[in-house]
Amino acid sequence: MTVRGRFITVEGGEGAGKSSNLAFIQSLLEAAGKQVLFTREPGGTPLGEAIRELLLGHKHTGMADDTELLLMFAARAEHLQQKILPALEQGVWVLCDRFTDASFAYQGSGRGLSLEKITKLQQFVQGSLRPDLTLLLDLPVETGLQRAGNRSEPDRFEREAEDFFERVRNGYLQIAREEPERVRVIDASPALPQVQEQISATIHHYLESLDE
Ligand code: TMP
Fold first, then answer.
1. Residues 157-197: tens digit of each pLDDT
2. Cβ of 14 less than 6 Å from ligand 1
3. Could you give the 3-state DSSP secondary structure of residue 126?
4. Rounded to an integer, what distance in angstroms lies between the CA atom of residue 150 and that of residue 95?
5. What angle do the packed helices 46-56 and 65-79 form, to 10 degrees?
6. Is 48 annotated as a binding residue?
7. Is the CB of 41 under 6 A from ligand 1?
8. Where are the domains of the chain?
9. Which one of 47, 150, 186, 192 is least enclosed by Cβ atoms within 10 Å?
10. How far is the CA of 145 from the centre of ligand 1 (A)?
């Protein structure tokens, strides 16, 4: 299988401004002439969205951590087979709101599941496929929770305590330290225009690196 499109993911904690920034990234890529498929995890397919409801809803509050991890990867397997890989093969760029880094940060660092377990699932479900570029929208947990606090009814993750989100943030930053080429950290604490300046520079730098 030849993958011709590029796979870009966006990660971040609660209240990091993913939604508005994802739309901005899509517009930058389209302005550069790329055909972009925007999608999200968990979700992205009818089955994936049904799994998302199980994961984020409050029907199964006592869900075991392993079950949570396996459901994330079940949704991901479906997403890859049905949507992401076919798009990439056709030369479409895929922009995804969260991907496997979220499993390492939330289920690994947040819940305390072993990284070895997650790495095995990553290999099983994705083979060698990894995002080409990941933007990590980073900001202090307290600021993020304050921003997210104004929104509607919290989902099953949003109900976690602050120390959970501290571990998630540290987990993400650890991945960024280990893979600085792929994972670019964006400081999401200033006002939106300053955040978008950083995003724009990162995307343009990436696009230029492909022309070299
Ligand atoms: P969001 O897309 O609105 O941020 O909600 C998705 C939630 O799911 C978010 O709290 C992070 C969580 N999540 C995981 O815990 N593991 C994963 O692998 C993914 C993709 C998301």
1. 998 999 999 999 999 999 999 999 999 999 999 999 999 99
2. no
3. helix
4. 26
5. 160
6. no
7. yes
8. 7-211
9. 150
10. 15
Whether residue 106 has its Cβ less than 6 Å from ligand 1? yes
Instruction: Express each pLDDT in 117-131 by its tens digit.
Output: 999 999 999 999 999
**CATH architecture group of domain 7-211:** 3-Layer(aba) Sandwich (3.40)
- In whole angstroms, how large is the CA radius of gyration of the chain? 17
- pLDDT score of 206: 98
CA 14 to ligand 1 centroid distance, Å: 10
On whether 153 is known to bind a ligand per the annotation, the reply is no
Tell me the pLDDT tens digit for each residue of 39-86: 999 999 999 999 999 999 999 989 999 999 999 999 999 999 999 999
pLDDT at 107: 98
How remote is the CA of residue 35 from the centroid of ligand 1, in Å? 25
* Atom 13, ligand 1: residue with shortest CA distance: 102
In the reported structure, the alpha carbon of residue 42 is separated from the centroid of ligand 1 by a whole-number distance in angstroms of: 6
Closest among 155, 35, 170 to 108, alpha carbons compared: 170
Q: Specify the DSSP class assigned to residue 41.
A: S
| Cβ 42 under 6 angstroms from ligand 1 | yes
Nearest CA to ligand 1 atom 19: 102
What are the pLDDT digits (tens) for 81-134? 999 999 999 999 999 999 999 999 999 999 999 999 999 999 999 999 999 999
Q: Which secondary-structure segment (H or E) carries 146?
A: helix 141-148
Q: Tell how far the Cα of 100 is from the centroid of ligand 1, in angstroms.
A: 10
